[in-house]
Amino acid sequence: MILFNSIFSKKQIQTSLSLIVLIFITLGFLSSCTKNSLKGTEVTFSETEKDTPEQVTRMLVTEKYLRIDEGINNNDFLLYDRVNRVIYSTNSTDKRTLIVRAQPLTRKSPIKLGNKAKIIHTDAPKIDGYQVQHLNLLTNKEICYDLFAAEGLLPQVVTALKEYRIALSGEQAAIIDAIPKDMLLPCDLANNIFMSTRHLEHGFPVRLQETKGRFRELVNYRQDIDIDEGLLRLPEGYSEFTAEDMRNR
């Protein structure tokens, strides 16, 4: 301290210390900004299925990932890698991760599917200026989806969901042969395999009712927010198995 004082005046020391503190504060701020700085969109739905209580479904969408969970930052979630076209489904109870790799849909439906979209009059209000359209999506004259969609709303989320649905449809098609033909349902085949994105072709689905009673409704969304990178990483130490492993058992 004697040597320090002999070179600098007291005022200079105070100024230097203040500058050092300011530098550390600034570096800390920049570090906090860059540590979890992935930008993306968060969408929250209210979802129910037949005879089940209402639950929250959250989607986090970035340029490279889509995460679907129950609105909780834990190790139970679905993660779609948009770049490599791989779906991961994690389970914290048995610490396992199911891996589904996208594969092309090369086969045709084992039964004939006649698909149609019917526009229904609606007085639904606009969402952020986007008009909401009401449609029934039918297969073989049966209503498979009762849909309210806003054209132009959240296009980046619509694109991510299309990619995910297409990636999943090839795997769904791989198990068709294991199902007796008389148990194949036209709506299931259309919705999950052969027209898996049709409910997304009319805009963002703000309200969707499926044949089996599953109901999903938009609650809220936030765009251009910071998303914790940790939520887009798989938990460490989990065993992995593939959809092929399950089919070959």
Taken as a percent bin, the fraction of beta residues is 25-35%
Describe the global form.
Answer: globular
Which bin fits the share of residues in helices? 25-40%
Summarize the main sheet. 12 strands, mixed
Low-confidence stretches: 1-34
Q: Determine the number of helices (DSSP H or I, runs of at least 4 residues).
A: 5
Order of SSEs, N→C?
Answer: HHEEEEEEEEEHHEEEH
| Total domain count | 2
Radius of gyration: 25 Å
Kindly, what is the distance between the CA atoms of the first and last residues, rounded to a whole number of angstroms? 74 Å
Round the mean pLDDT to the nearest integer and report it.
87
Side by side, the strands of the main sheet go 7-8-9-10-11-1-2-3-4-5-6-12
DSSP strand count:
12
Query: What structural class is derived from the secondary structure elements?
Result: alpha+beta
Quaternary structure of the protein: single chain
Please render the helix and strand layout as text.
Elements: H1 2-7, H2 10-35, E1 38-48, E2 55-61, E3 65-69, E4 78-81, E5 86-91, E6 96-101, E7 115-120, E8 132-139, E9 142-150, H3 155-174, H4 186-194, E10 204-210, E11 215-227, E12 239-242, H5 243-247
Parallel strand pairs: 6-12
Antiparallel strand pairs: 1-2, 1-11, 2-3, 3-4, 4-5, 5-6, 7-8, 8-9, 9-10, 10-11
Structure description:
The protein is 27% helix and 35% strand. With 249 residues, it is of the alpha+beta class. The protein folds into two domains: 2-35; 39-72 and 105-223, no CATH class. A twelve-stranded mixed sheet has the order 7-8-9-10-11-1-2-3-4-5-6-12. The longest helix is centred in the first third of the chain and has 26 residues, at 10-35.
